């Protein structure tokens, strides 16, 4: 045994089938400045140039409440109420990114073998969390309006799954935005089966055509729900702050899980976020600027893809969020594509990690359009399309 190796028997069984994040591996390989990376879900840092960060008062260096700072809880609850959720600051928890919300929700519900319903494709780091808790992950395909409510109904009838994880507004990775009708139908099905809804909504503000319809959780009548938001996509991800709002019966248990996880989220970061978000008018202007900036990038990406990828892939122009999701017409080995692209200083995300079941899904790639500068966007997509063309014998 190598001195750095741990005897397997001393580690928790949950690590046996637990894989590291492909996305974070790629991210660590794309740190050099030269690289054109479509791989992550990173905001454009140029948008922060005129952001003036407040000075943190020493009082914020002290330990604080596990729920989070009340002014920030109020801001997050007010924002959610404004788009229709039954939200109250008293049921709002400030989390260390919405990623922690996924972790707390998983701890709340999942035992080894618990069936959990997700979309196909779905957010890869949610899959990672559910795998960690040894869920029996089942996925339902997305069409252009979301998952099919009748299929969901049949699935829940069979499995009695206690948890459904959905990312219905400008989904990562597909960009799908569930229609109003679909949201209502799904809420009705979840209510009927008393399935807890875990709704992940970090991209809601990044809409480029019309606002996303109200959250699915806002249509629920009796089943418990957890609604996650984040400041990562619209403010600064390095603050590592999100919010978890839930129905009343879940809050005490989630609060205990938060206490055990990290006592509370970073207080200086909470202070900064509160200061930056408390002026509603200024915040609305900032989001508007962000939307128009990303909308232009999305449009540029669409025209670039039309020129380079038309014969290679199908996609739907996303009406919000940060990603294009391309389904390749011919199957190629995307790990080979990625290695070749990385040699040419371009990165993207292969689609496979976004599927719970790795074997029977289409050959897809995810391209982020928020990070790369307009000047580099065209060159980058051209490299990827050339590599795919050479692999598929064009
Ligand atoms: N959910 C989804 C769907 C995401 O895309 C992300 C970030 N990529 C997260 C949750 C986590 O975001 P954060 O922890 O930065 O709030």
From TrEMBL:
Family stated for the protein in its record: Belongs to the class-I pyridoxal-phosphate-dependent aminotransferase family.
InterPro entries: Aminotransferase_I/II_large (IPR004839), Class-I_PLP-dep_aminotransf (IPR050859), PyrdxlP-dep_Trfase (IPR015424), PyrdxlP-dep_Trfase_major (IPR015421), PyrdxlP-dep_Trfase_small (IPR015422)
Entry protein name: PLP-dependent aminotransferase family protein
Pfam families hit by this protein: Aminotran_1_2
Subunit structure and binding partners: Homodimer.
Annotated source species: Pelagicoccus albus
Keyword Transferase found: yes
Coiled coil: none
Domain of life: Bacteria
């Amino acid at each position: 045994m190598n001195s750095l190796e741990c005897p397997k028997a001393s580690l928790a069984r949950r690590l046996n089938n637990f894989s590291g994040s492909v996305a974070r591996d790629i991210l660590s390989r794309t740190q050099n400045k030269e690289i054109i990376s479509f791989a992550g879900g990173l905001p454009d840092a140029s948008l922060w140039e005129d952001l003036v960060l407040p000075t943190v008062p020493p009082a914020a260096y002290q330990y604080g409440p596990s729920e989070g700072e009340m002014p920030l809880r109020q801001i997050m609850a007010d924002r959610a109420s404004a788009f229709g959720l039954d939200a109250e600051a008293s049921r709002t928890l400030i989390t260390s990114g919405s990623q922690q919300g996924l972790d707390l929700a998983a701890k709340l519900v999942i035992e080894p073998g618990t069936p959990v319903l997700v979309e196909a494709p779905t957010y890869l780091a949610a899959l990672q969390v559910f795998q960690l808790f040894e869920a029996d992950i089942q996925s339902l395909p997305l069409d252009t309006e979301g998952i099919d409510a009748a299929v969901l109904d049949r699935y829940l009838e069979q499995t009695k799954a206690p948890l459904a994880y959905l990312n219905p507004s400008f989904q990562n990775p597909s960009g799908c935005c569930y229609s109003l009708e679909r949201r209502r139908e799904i809420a009705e099905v979840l209510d009927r089966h008393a399935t807890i809804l875990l709704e992940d909504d970090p991209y809601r503000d990044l809409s480029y055509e019309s606002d996303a319809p109200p959250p699915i959780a806002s249509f629920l009548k009796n089943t418990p729900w957890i609604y996650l938001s984040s400041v990562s996509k619209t403010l600064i991800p390095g603050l590592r702050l999100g919010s978890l709002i839930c129905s009343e019966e879940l809050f005490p248990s989630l609060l205990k899980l938060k206490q055990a996880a990290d006592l509370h989220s970073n207080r200086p970061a909470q202070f900064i976020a509160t200061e930056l978000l408390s002026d509603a008018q200024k915040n609305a202007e900032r989001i508007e600027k962000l939307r128009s900036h990303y909308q232009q990038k999305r449009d540029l990406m669409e025209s670039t893809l039309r020129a380079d990828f038309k014969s290679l892939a199908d996609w739907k122009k996303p009406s919000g969020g940060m990603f294009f999701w391309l389904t390749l017409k011919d199957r190629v080995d995307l790990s080979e594509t990625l290695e070749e692209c990385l040699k040419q200083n371009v990165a993207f995300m292969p689609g496979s990690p976004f599927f719970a079941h790795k074997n029977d899904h289409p050959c897809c790639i995810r391209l982020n359009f928020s990070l790369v500068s307009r000047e580099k966007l065209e060159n980058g997509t051209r490299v990827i399309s050339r590599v795919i063309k050479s692999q598929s014998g064009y």
